[in-house]
Amino acid sequence: MPRTSFRDVPADYWAYEYISGLARFSVISGFPDGTFKPNEPVTRAQFAAILNQAFMSVQPFQVPNGRLNATQPSTPTFADVPNNHWAAGYIAKARTAGFLSGYPGNQFKPNQPISRVQALISIANGLGYQGGSMAELSAYKDAAAIPKYARPGITAARAANIVVNYPALDQIRPNRPATRAEVAAFVYQALVKDGRAQPVAAAGARWNKAPITTLPTAANVFSFSADGQRLLTLTTGGAKLQVWNTQTGALIKEIAAGAQTRFDGAAISKDGTKVAAIAQTSPTNTVELAAWVIETGQPLWKKTIGPASSTIDGSQIAFSNDNQRIITFVKTNRDGTSVPQLALWNTANGEAVQSLDTSGRFAISPNSQFAISPNGQFLAIQIYPNDSSGRVDLWRLNQSGIFEYARTLPPEDVLFWGMNMVFRNDGLLNVLTRSPYDGLLVTWNPQTGARVTSTELLADRSDEAIGLSPDGDSYFFGGQVAGARLGSVKTGEVQDWPSGYGYRVAFSDRGNYLAILNINPNEVGSTLPTPSISIYSKIAH
């Protein structure tokens, strides 16, 4: 069994979770004396070995004396890397895969410490990362020290959320040798992006107050693709769906509702390739669900959900994390009665998969919402009975692929209206309840129904915008009296936000981007600026 803990890496060490995580995967190991020596530099040869173990090898290697060691092919690589060099095979494969290159004169310099910037762009190049905005680099006080050749790679690495800075979050220190702890953090974050490891929560996230970009649109509904690179907006009034590039502010695609039709809910797929919307058409008085391919704007299919209720305010729609299902929560008309209906649909063809029994259990309102766990096994639904109190019901996926009612969370913790909830990336459920003067963030284990933690958050009775990040740390409150605030659950720190107070907010699934509608759309025409949506990014930790 590989060693997963080291005597010089205590549980409160900043890189503990990165190091222990890679040790569990047998990507790294320590020294014979039980240490890891996290602050020692990593040579270029050692880095090639780590890359092989993390991204190019399926067989675990041992790491005697802090270096990977295994039988390797005798492959010529560089003039200063003979065939019998301990890392010759690793270096050859890393070169072929596009992770590492050499210096003039066909030199690799295997014993030279690799710098932080070289390590980051190596991972970005080898894994084909792209995107991001050069403007984001201004978040670092030492951005001018980033070599010109490395800036596109660092921008892509930042967009992929593999840049880890400690202790100064706003300094990237590009040219300093990377330590063993820092390389572990970079590689672990790359495994997270690839879906092979669980995210490590930042020790108190901070955000850039300067937006990446501001989109010239007002929207009642907006949502990110999983990587935060695209944002879907549903314009006020429901006339258009718009898909934006969050890094450049460019409008990628616009889809019009058409005459006598309005969109009442919309969502973008996690992979950013499709959009789906709930629409109400006046001539037939029906509620419909439709999906489109973003790149072409071509419709995939259209399905009728049912006859329209007098209002379908509060309609909810989302894609499952694997993009295979679309979940809708709408009101339809049944014998003159408005009936809330929660249904699951096949993304590929629009066929109905399941319609959950609503009898006596659901009571939808504009504040209702649902959330699905990252592994797709649990569905959480906010319920608002007639007495205006609230609760959360949990549904569990059975072996037939159908959700069954599992349990209701204890009502004493979810009584207040204006709840907000999100499944965290680790599978736990965060529920924020709101009273007139404060908020209580309760974390639940959906497997057992047990309460894990409770944290009081300072709220204001005027707060209209409330958002929770899936990383479990960041939260946003916004109102006319207290203004906009962005806080950290872990540290208790609260940043006053420079935008308008924020009528709507959304976090990306990975918790690294935030979209804020700057002002209440009802206030257009006042002295406040025209409504717009600003995109913000987290400072790399």
Task: Provide an overview of this structure.
With 541 residues, the chain is mainly β. Helices cover 12% and strands 32% of the residues. It is built from six helices and 28 strands. A hairpin with a 5-residue loop joins strand 2 (219-224) and strand 3. Helix 1 packs across helix 6, helix 4 (116-126) packs across helix 5 (151-159) and helix 4 (116-126) runs parallel beside helix 6. It is globular and about 75 Å long. Residues 58-74 and 521-528 have low confidence and may be disordered.
What keywords describe this structure?
about 550 residues, 6 helices, 28 strands, globular
Concise synopsis of the structure shown:
The protein contains 6 helices and 28 strands.
In terms of topology, how is this protein built?
Layout: H1 16-24, H2 44-56, H3 88-96, H4 116-126, H5 151-159, H6 180-193, E1 213-215, E2 219-224, E3 230-235, E4 240-245, E5 251-256, E6 261-268, E7 274-281, E8 286-293, E9 299-307, E10 316-319, E11 325-334, E12 337-346, E13 352-355, E14 370-372, E15 378-383, E16 391-397, E17 403-408, E18 420-423, E19 429-434, E20 438-445, E21 450-458, E22 463-468, E23 474-479, E24 483-488, E25 494-496, E26 505-507, E27 513-517, E28 533-537
Antiparallel strand pairs: 1-28, 2-3, 3-4, 4-5, 6-7, 7-8, 8-9, 10-11, 11-12, 12-13, 14-15, 15-16, 16-17, 18-19, 19-20, 20-21, 22-23, 23-24, 24-25, 26-27, 27-28
Helix pairs in contact: 1-6, 2-3, 4-5, 4-6
